[in-house]
Every structure is written in C-alpha cells, then in structure tokens.
Amino acid sequence: MRDTFSLPALAVAALLALSAPGPAAAQGTFEPLVYVNGSAVTTFELQQRQRFLTLLNAPPEMIADVRQNLIDERLHEQAAAQGNVTVNPQELDAALEQFAGRANLSAEQFTAELGRAGVAPETFREFLRAQLLWRDTVRARFGGRVNISKTDVDEAITRLDKPIDVPPGTRVLLSELIVRKGEDDARAKLLIDRVAALTRSPADFTANARQYSTSNSRTDGGELEWMPIENLPPEVRGTVSALKPGEISAPIHAGPGTYAMFMLRDKREERGILPGNIEALTYAEYLIPGGRTAPALAEAERVRARVTSCDDLYAVNRGQPAERLQIETRASNTLPADVAGALATLDAGEASTALTRGNALVFLMLCSRGKLMDGTTVPRTALRGRLESEQLAQLAESWMAELRATAVIREP
Fold first, then answer.
1. What is the three-state SS of 204-222?
2. How far apart are CA 265 and CA 341, in angstroms?
3. Which end of the chain is more exposed for a tag (fewer CB within 10 A), N or C?
4. How far apart are CA 391 and CA 398, in angstroms?
5. Helix and strand numbers, DSSP H then E, in the chain
C-alpha cells in the first residue's frame, strides 16, 4: 500500500483562515483577472487555487504558475466543449475519494478540513475535474491516432538486454508483511515489534499480514509468487536463506521508515530459467536535486501526494529537463543491485526514497511486474500502455502549443 501523506500545512490552517478576505473585501475577488477567448478567470479562483496548493505543500514553482495553469484549464474546457467531452460524475467522485484517501480521510472529511482553512469545496473538486477533463479530451482527440504495434512492443523488449538463459539457482515462495511509516523508523519499528510478538504460527502470519501489512499483498495474506532468491535485497536474502518452509523471520529493516517480516512457504532449486520465466519490472526514477536532505525529502512527499501511477510523473516533470525522469522495463536479473533491493518490497504504484544518485534523491516508483514474455498480462501490456502514454503526451503538448498560440488572452 502506498505511504499516506499528511497535510502539515493544515497545522497552520487557523492562520490561513484568518487571512481569508471578509465579506466586504471578498466582493473584489470575483472580478475577472484575465479573459481566455472571452471566458473569465477570476481573482477568487487564483487565490483559492494558491491556497489549496499551499495546504498540499506544493512546490513554490507550481504555486507561482497558478495563473498560467488556470488559463490552460480554460483552454482545456473550451477544447473539451468542442469535442463534446464531459467528466463522468461517478469517476470524479472516485477521484476525490482516492485523493483524500492519501491523507487517511474521506472526501467529505478532506473537504471539511480544507473549508476550515478557507478553501471552498469547489476548488478541490475543480482541481481534479480539470485533470480528468483534459485527459479524456486528449484521448478522444488522439486515441485513434496512437497505434502501438506488436513489433513496437517487441522492439521495446529487445532493449531489456535479457539473457538467453540464466544460471541455475534457488527459487523461494514467500509471504511478506511490510510496515511503512513514511521516513519514521521509530514508528515502523514499534509496530513491527508488536506484530512480531503476535505472530507465532503461519496462520498468525497470514492473519496479521491482512490486518497490519501496508503492502498490496495483504489482501492475499501477504502471499507472493515464486521468485529467484537473487531478486531479494542482500539483507533479506541472507535471512530467507536460513529459513525452512513454515518458518517466519524476525523483523528486518528494509529502508527508511520500513520494516518487513517474511514467511518461507516453499523452496526449490532450478536447473535453469528460460527467458519466458524471468520476471520483468517496469519502474520510474524521478531525480530530485539535493540528495537526502530535508527539502529534497519534502519534495518527494509532495510528488508522492500528486501521483498514483508512473504515468502521472510525466506531468510532474513537465517543463523540467527530460533526463530527470526515466521510465524503463528490465529483466529482474539485469537490474542494478540497489534498484533491485529497493523495488523488492514495492507493489505497483508504490514508491521508495531509499536511493540517491550523486547529489539527487531518487523517487523510485514500481509501475508493474510480471513475466517477461507473457503475451497477455504485464509487462507487455504495461509496455504498450507506456508507449501509448508517451505518444499521447507528445501529441497533447503540441496541441496545447497551438491552442495557446491561437487564443485571445487579455486582461480587463
């Protein structure tokens, strides 16, 4: 399960609420700030969006770009209207719930917290509606033009540097119990120790994994599929190697704010593994300048709050050097050791900040994992989806440049 994010800025919500304009001053805030093809963006919208993003601890540049983003959203709305594209109310409600869920709140609770800080419910709703509307508009306009062939996917797979064969080795069938508490080692250690004290048998492990684990595997009692033991991080590999089927490991420190326990269900020796049985992982590396510093870690949490999948990182990296974001798919046995270790405890959509590259913190997100040559599921499906997303993103950027160039944008 993804680490939840908190809203530390809500701690100063009272101060923000006090700074909200009173009835007399509020009248002026509804005055038009700028017209976009005759459609007004108001000062009220600008102030509300800035306040909302401030509460989310958004990067300063994102807050500074609010005026341009609101102009772009007017262009998005006008393009959607021309294409008869609308947002499904049920999908929007689901998006609101998902977003609020990252703060361990319902959409209603989240909206109430925002209201206490002076942010209108419509501001939160419109923020997500605009994103869904533009996504659906781009898909409606360009979806038919994007054609990823089997050959395109095959060529992408050939870039994985997969081996024809791999040496014999040990494969293990594990169950996991992962506890993540952001970067807070003390809280994670306290919880894992309590869980360990309650875990005396395989049945206990399965029940506790369902109740306490923060990994997506909790729905299956922590059960994982067969994997080469070499795929495990060194600190986990040594512990698991010493286990016999049915035995449970002691808690293991698996990264900042993360502890894990493992139960070995079975073990077997493979004489050789053919490429079709090799696991492949699609993952993203987004580089945040500053290394493991407090500002860089805070920026990573802001990114975590904005994304639910690797594709969302394209929007995060918009306007920044392309090399800051790399998304690739590789065979599990060709992964760099540090990346393999960090990915080992992640499920699709989860992220880690355990790694650094030079003076940059790595926001590492697992996009998908699956059999390398499986023609019906990931990663071939994930590869196709990524190639489609890249094409759509390029087409959308070109279209936006045209919309901006032909728009009539004026101040009152």
1. HHHHHHHHHCCCHHHHHCC
2. 21
3. C
4. 11
5. 16, 11
Q: Can you tell me the distance from the alpha carbon of 289 to that of 359, in angstroms, rounded to the nearest whole number?
A: 6
H/E element, 200? none
* Residue 79 identity: A
pLDDT score recorded for residue 379: 66
Residue type, 273: I
Q: Which domains does the chain show, CATH number per domain?
A: 8-142 (1.10.4030.10), 150-161+278-379 (3.10.50), 169-270 (3.10.50.40)
Phi, psi of 4 (to 5 degrees): -75, 155
Q: Shortest CA distance to 175 belongs to which of 248, 103, 97, 273? A: 248
Q: How many CB atoms are located within 10 Å of the residue 248 CB?
A: 18
Farthest CA pair distance, the chain: 79
Specify the pLDDT at position 138: 92
Which one, of 66, 62, 65, 130, lies nearest residue 95 by Cα? 130
C-alpha–C-alpha distance, residues 393 and 401, integer Å: 12
Residue 160's pLDDT is 59
Structure tokens at 191: 């919880």
Q: Mean pLDDT per 10-residue run, the chain (412 residues)?
A: 37 37 50 94 94 81 88 95 92 86 81 92 93 92 87 74 54 90 85 92 92 87 85 82 91 87 87 58 92 90 89 85 84 77 85 87 90 63 79 88 94 88
Examine residue 379 and say whether the peptide bond preceding it is cis (omega within 30 degrees of 0).
yes
Q: Which amino acid is at 149?
A: S
Separation of first and last alpha carbons in the chain: 48
The residue type found at 200 is: R
pLDDT at residue 18, rounded to an integer: 34
Q: In sequence order, which residues have a C-beta less than 8 Å from that of residue 128 and are 6 or more positions away?
A: 92, 95, 96, 99
Give CA–CA dist 288/299, Å, rounded: 7
pTM of the model: 0.54
For residue 344, which amino acid is it?
Answer: A
